[in-house]
């Protein structure tokens, strides 16, 4: 891979805020843009949207199955529907509606999973979504996206609005640094974004774990002289197998990073592709293990499971020096 | 279509339901026979739906929540010209689009259904879109009485009245039997009318085999201004074939050759009296 590009990490907004502002921009020129909420307009940062576009927001109340069913009905009649609800409820309680009413019936709803992963931190497992990639990966006809920064969020929302197909887009609520100057970035569903280039190993991360992967890469460079590539694999399905192929061909270790169970998510998707296409790179899946999740804030949980600057750097060293 | 013509259609549809279930050796016989008069009146009298206008945003919508009685829907859609009736000879065969539940791969089908408790939320969303777009189309959905315990129905029932969806009509095919036993024994949802009324719906009871009464009921919607309408259609599972009527095993029973011919003879005899 090419030369190391060190970039200044600017501090951005929460992806949720960018979702809301992007949706407002879209709604201003398109009356078919509809937000459907389950008493979630506050947590979805959609209060200003509701004030500006009262005819373009549908409140369902706390009833996620109905939220998705109604959203699918609206979409079938030509509305560009964003169904917004905490990821934990949206993808578990309403899974059958996602499977049948959205994906199988091909009603082009954009399912927005807010406060995803362990964003709700100490609220506990009821409010965590560590299963969503896994369950949705096994359902045909839905694109799964976890934007890493504000740029990816804005692009994902704007591009999804223009596409008549089902999407699941999830993000958290903490402020996210901009990973690259926007001018250097492109975003295309199904195409991973290389945010750092290096020669010794590759982090394939997604969502809010891309930033700690980038921090770990910088630490490895500074302290060990090890240069790492970092990919924001914002689209978990369909997976950018072309980019994985290219990365794997160099024969160097690959570490996947996700705010999700180590079962069924990005890591296993990558492993499945790589193994079946003959690659035998050293490989490690970093995520939340199959146990009662440790209690604490999102940062506490990230640190506990090594989804952090030091944890990921350590995982890299272990893989490089077995 | 006159009441007599509709009655003749009902007999024809019953014969076709049996023909294709007998041919496929699979199907939901009892429920298809209980709801067929409702579909008959909807497609031949009430709905402004045809193969010609099926992509029009202004068409009425019919969403079948009790997807398992798809044979009733398929024979009506074939008769209306959405596809050649001979397509139904492939019912449930390898690579056929004509499977055991409605799918959009079949022309004329609005939504892929089959899991219960989905039709009402989908219909609420579709009816809400009509209100937003100030379009005049109406949305009809057919539920089985056995699917009423699904909680999503009651979630959607709340939303329908909250948004005053008087362009929405739900019909319950109240044949009072489900796969295990009577609906009363499995999970008694009575009184259905009081429950829906308390959820803000306007409710009517109708004989679900009386085509004139069904016409009148559909004509009368919305039953009350600003309220969604519910028709509790009292029906008989297996209606039209004496040995099937109200007999549990015909939920998805398939007639033998002798039983098939016996059923057709009975229906032919009815047709001769019309």
Automatic annotation (TrEMBL), chain A:
Keyword annotations from UniProtKB, A to Z: Thiamine pyrophosphate
Cross-referenced InterPro entries: PDH/Transketolase, THDP-binding, Transketo_C/PFOR_II, Transketolase-like_Pyr-bd, Transketolase_C
Protein name per UniProt: Transketolase family protein
Domain of life: Bacteria
Cofactor: thiamine diphosphate
Record-linked Pfam families: Transket_pyr, Transketolase_C
Similarity-based family: Belongs to the transketolase family.
Organism: Pontibacter qinzhouensis
Residue span(s) of domain Transketolase-like pyrimidine-binding: 13-178
TrEMBL record, chain B:
Highest taxon of source: Bacteria
Alphabetic keyword roster: Thiamine pyrophosphate
InterPro entries in the record: THDP-binding, Transketolase_N
Pfam families the record matches: Transketolase_N (PF00456)
Boundaries of every Transketolase N-terminal domain copy: 21-256
Obligatory cofactor(s): thiamine diphosphate
PANTHER family, sorted: TRANSKETOLASE N-TERMINAL SECTION-RELATED
Family membership: Belongs to the transketolase family.
Name of the protein in question: Transketolase
Lineage, opening ranks: Bacteria, Pseudomonadati, Bacteroidota, Cytophagia, Cytophagales
């Amino acid at each position: 891979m090419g030369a190391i590009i060190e970039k200044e990490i600017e501090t951005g907004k929460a992806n949720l805020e960018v979702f809301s502002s992007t949706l407002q921009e879209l709604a201003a020129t398109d009356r078919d843009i509809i937000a459907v909420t389950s008493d979630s307009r506050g947590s979805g940062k959609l209060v200003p949207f509701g004030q500006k576009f009262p005819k373009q927001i549908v409140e369902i109340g706390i009833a996620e199955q109905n939220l998705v069913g109604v959203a699918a009905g609206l979409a079938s009649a030509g509305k560009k529907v964003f169904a917004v609800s905490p990821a934990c409820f949206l993808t578990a309680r309403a899974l059958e509606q996602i499977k049948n009413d959205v994906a199988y019936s091909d009603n082009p709803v954009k399912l927005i999973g807010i406060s995803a992963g362990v964003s709700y931190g100490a609220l506990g497992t009821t409010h965590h979504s560590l299963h969503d990639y896994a369950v949705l990966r096994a359902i045909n006809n839905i694109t799964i996206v976890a934007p890493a920064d504000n740029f990816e969020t804005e692009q994902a929302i704007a591009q999804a609005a223009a596409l008549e197909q089902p999407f699941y887009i999830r993000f958290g609520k903490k402020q996210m640094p901009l990973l690259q100057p926007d001018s250097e970035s492109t975003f295309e569903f199904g195409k991973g974004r290389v945010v750092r280039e290096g020669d010794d190993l590759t982090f394939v991360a997604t969502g809010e774990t891309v930033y700690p992967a980038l921090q770990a890469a910088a630490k490895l460079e500074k302290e060990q002289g090890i240069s790492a590539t970092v990919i924001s694999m914002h689209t978990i399905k369909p997976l950018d197998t072309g980019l994985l192929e290219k990365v794997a061909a160099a024969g160097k270790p690959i570490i996947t990073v996700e705010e999700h169970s180590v079962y069924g998510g990005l890591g296993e998707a990558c492993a499945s592709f790589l193994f079946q296409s003959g690659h035998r790179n050293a490989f490690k899946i970093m995520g939340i293990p199959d146990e009662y999740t440790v209690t604490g804030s999102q940062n506490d949980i990230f640190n506990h499971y090594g989804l952090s600057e030091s944890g990921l750097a350590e995982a890299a060293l272990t893989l490089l020096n077995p | 279509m006159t009441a007599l013509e509709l009655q003749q259609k009902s007999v024809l549809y019953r014969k076709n339901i049996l023909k294709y279930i007998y041919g496929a050796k699979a199907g939901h016989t009892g429920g298809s026979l209980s709801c067929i008069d409702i579909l008959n009146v909807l497609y031949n009298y009430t709905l402004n739906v045809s193969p010609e206008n099926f992509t029009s945003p202004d068409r009425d919508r019919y969403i079948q929540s009790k997807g398992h009685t798809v044979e009733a829907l398929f024979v009506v859609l074939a008769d209306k010209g959405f596809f050649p009736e001979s397509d139904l000879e492939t019912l449930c065969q390898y690579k056929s689009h004509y499977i055991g539940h409605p799918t959009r791969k079949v022309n004329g089908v609005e939504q892929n259904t089959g899991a219960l408790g989905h039709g009402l939320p989908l219909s609420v969303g579709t009816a809400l879109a009509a209100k937003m777009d100030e379009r005049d189309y109406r949305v009809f959905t057919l539920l089985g009485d056995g699917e009423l315990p699904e909680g999503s129905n009651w979630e959607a029932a709340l939303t329908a009245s909250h948004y005053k969806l008087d362009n929405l009509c739900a019909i319950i095919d109240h044949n009072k039997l489900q796969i295990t036993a009577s609906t009363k024994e499995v999970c008694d949802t009575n009184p259905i009318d009081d429950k829906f009324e308390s959820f803000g719906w306007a409710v009517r009871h109708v004989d679900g085999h009386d085509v004139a009464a069904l016409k009148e009921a559909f004509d009368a919607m919305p039953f009350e201004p600003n309220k969604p309408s519910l028709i509790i259609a009292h029906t008989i599972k297996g209606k039209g074939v004496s040995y099937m009527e109200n007999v549990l095993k015909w939920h998805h029973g398939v007639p033998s050759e002798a039983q098939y011919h016996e059923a057709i003879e009975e229906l032919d005899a009815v047709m001769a009296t019309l």
